[in-house]
Amino acid sequence: MANKQKTDVLQDTLALMVLKTLDVLGSLHGYGIARRIEQISGGLLAVNQGTLYPVLLKLEQEGAIGSEWGASENNRRARFYRLTKEGRKQLQVEAQDWEQTAAIIARFFAAKAEDLS
Amino acid sequence: MKSLRRFLSRLASFATRRAQDERLREEIDEHIALQTDENIRAGLSPVEARRQALLKFGGVEAIKQEYRSARGLLFVETFVQDVRFALRSLRRAPGLTAFVAITLGLGIGMTSGTFSMVDALIFRPYPVPHPSSVVTLAGTTRDSGFDDFSYREYLDIRDKTKSYDGVVANADMEAVGFSAEPGTTPRIQGGMMVSDNYFHVLGVEPRLGRGFREDEDQVPGRNPVVVLGPDFWRHEFTSDPSVLGKTILLNGTEFTVIGVAPDSFPGMEIFGHPDFYMPLAMAQVFSTNVQKNFFEDRDDRELNVRARLKPSTTLAQARNELAVLAKNFEGEYPEVNRSRGAAVYTQFETRIREDESWKFGVTFVILALAVLLVACTNVAGLLLSRARARLREIAVRLALGAGRFRLIRLLLTESLILATLGGLAGIAIGYGVVEWFHTFQFMTELPWAVPFRMDTRVLLASIALSVLSALVFGLVPALQSTRVDLANALKSADVDVPRRKHLWGRNMLVVAQVSMSLMLLTASFLMAHSFQRSLLERTSFGKDHLLMVGFDPRLLQYNAAQTQQFYKLLAERVQVAPGVLSEALTQNIPFGGDFDEAVFVPDGFQMPRDRENFNSTMDTVDEGYFETMGVPILRGRDFSASDTAGAQRVAIVNEQFAKHYWPAGDAVGKHIRLDNRNGAPVEIVGVAQTIKYEGTIEKPMDFVYLPLSQHPVARMLLMLRSSGDPLQLVQPVKDIVRTLDPNLPMSQTRSYEDFYLNQAVKGPRMGIDLVGTLGAVGLLLAVAGLYGLVAYNVSRRTREIGIRMALGATSSDVLRLVIGKGLMLVGVGTVIGMALGFALEQLMNSMLFNAGGVDILAYVVVVPSMFLVTTLAAYVPARRASRIAPTQALRYE
Q1: B295: number of CA atoms within 13 Å, CB side?
Q2: If we measure between CA atoms, which residue out of B515, B532, B428 comes closest to residue B769?
Q3: What is the CA radius of gyration of chain A?
Q4: Would an 8 Å CB–CB cutoff place B435 in contact with chain A?
Q5: Higher per-residue confidence, B587 vs B291
Q6: Residue B885's pLDDT is what?
Q7: Cβ contact, residue pair A49, B31, below 8 Å
Q8: Interface contact flag, A77 B71, Cβ < 8 Å
Q9: SS3 assignment, position B637
Q10: Which residues of chain A neighbour B55 with C-beta distances below 8 Å?
Q11: Which residues in chain B are contacts of A77 at CB distance < 8 A?
Q12: How far is the C-alpha of B189 from the C-alpha of B249, rounded, in Å?
């Protein structure tokens, strides 16, 4: 159970990263997204890059991203993902939520004993 | 919203799952190829580059699995897989599959077929909107909780109660003489008088025309209007809409057709579906009781009263209100309402009171369920043996990491498919049972029909039964076969190390089978036996060489004097017709349906304090009755021509009646007073033998005969004893009736023997046949099951037996070894079965036969034969085991 929750959190974080990546870089294939996340997050996807694909599928099912076949750098068939309008909205909302949560947590951790008395 | 969309897209991708798998494979390949290129650019060797890329990607198969579970509906997908797998493995064992389907089909079909009976008799809701708010109001007396109301009482109830959105009344459906135009001989049809608000309150919209208006039911005799029943309209008027406004003749009176009831409303009764509905105000044309005034006499109780409960009122409130009203009646009209109450019944309560045949239905369902249970245990046993043969397969699956739950699901899917096949066979058999019920026909001109149907409700019940039985017979084998010791199971083929728990389940099956089928057999034997016995009891009156013909001069609006004159002339003329040995007129005949009730006070009998009078079934007969019907007068005399209307009133009672009220002395010469203690004294002049009056299974009951001359009745049956074939008298009788009145219809013209056989023998016989079939099927299944289990045990222990024999055991030792256990189980099953059978006997006695005591013969016959048959089933495989050559047995497997 605990394990499942952990992967759920990971998946949610990963989903947000995918959305942001596509928002910044536009249309991208799976490998590209994985590379980008790895670079920026500093090794989150250094292993188990494959976990990205279920997340991509989930986002696609929710309508946040779309996909179509295209040609990769080495001229082979690859699936390219792009942000939809809905995805952009979702990104906005979730980014906001995230910042809010982060700010609250940050304030909480910064609080000292005297602040609370 | 998000999750809905996700679900829909999952649903979509479920359909395209193959293409999707392909897409993922391609994406992964591409991903790894790109990573490999990258690694090569970073300076790794191609081989190492690919290895690193694969490592970095993670477990490909795990990802695929995760992807799949996120993609589609995993549950459905695996279910489809399971179904495929199960179908494949069942196809590989067609014999087993067919056996299981037939076995279960018998159980399910018998149950749903008999359930259709209980459904029609008890559960099927009234064919009106919001049927659950329709309640029945009934009078209660010391002897009955389901008595009718009189017209006056109905009006009071309608006007003085506040619990209802309308109170309606209807008389029983009666024979009505119908002719489409004047001058034609009327035909007997079924008509029902109803209150003006009947259709409106019940919520029935006529399919054509209108229902009754309030003013059409106010002045007696003013508004001859009629609403047709849907079937009658279809058959008689070929669904002609122009029938509205047409004039038809009912009992010789012109009626205007104002409406046609819808197809959805065949009537409120279970069996009878009226052809006509007429307003109560037309009662003088239809009322059966000529001695009373329908509109005035508060004790002319002919009406069934129903009401629609207001949504805001509870049943308890309605009951209180009606009880108070009944108390008021009692105070206001002590003469006719003493110790009379009133009750409000729901549909269910009404149904279990108005017709008792449901008790047979329930008994049949219980027995059919027992058959189903035997079938289920049989199938469970089979699956258990089969699961053992698959033990290695299951062990391999478990070892490879299949979840136990997943495997149980797989095995249950297989059971479910078997149950579905069984359910299909069951529905077919159920239809057969219902069709067979329909071979019974009521011998009456009235529109009565057997109401049992395979409707949606019964079909749903069959499906529920199938699923339930799948769980019953599938769960135990599935649980047991997935709980294996892996190490052992993989090592050897024969791993069934006997574990107590394991064997316990299997032994339970044998015990359950033996006891269930013993119960079934006892019950069917019991029913057959008591029926056979009651067929011979008190039925020695004449049945052959008798012609019956019904007359009802009211159909032509004869008055009382004309009616008497008609019967007088009819009797005189048929007596002298060639071929007629003797003649009788009677209001009713044995097995001809419900008899009228006489209310009386016996002279010189110490009345209980709280009683005013007694009731007894009665018949009105002429002086030829006892001779013609062959009912002996034991003491005193027969009715005679001197018992005229003006003479001393006389009666003949049956022996039961005489013993009841004059246990010490002779009843002849004693007097009874009709209605109450102030009634005219009626002298008992004779005591007749007690026979059966209303049904084959009937306790001896009190009975009074009154002479036709002193107690005129309009509707009579003419009984003729013939020297030859009674049907040859039909034409002479027709000719005689034509000379008396060419328009008077003859009804129920048939040989009394046929009538008797249909009423007294055929109906009950069908019940016996049904129970007998259930018993036989149960026994057959139990024998097959027992044989299978013992044979299976033998095959499992073949090697052990070989070793024992090699070490010097004799074949009788082996026989004892194998059969001993089986016999013990049969013994335990027999004891339990006897207990169950005994309990069922008590139940049947109290419900059906009204007879106490134990039918020893049932046990003397059934138990030993059951024991013998089951022992044989165990013996055959055991004997085979004892003949195994040790060398062969040791090489086995």
Answers
A1: 13
A2: B532
A3: 17
A4: no
A5: B587
A6: 72
A7: yes
A8: no
A9: coil
A10: 47
A11: 26, 30
A12: 12
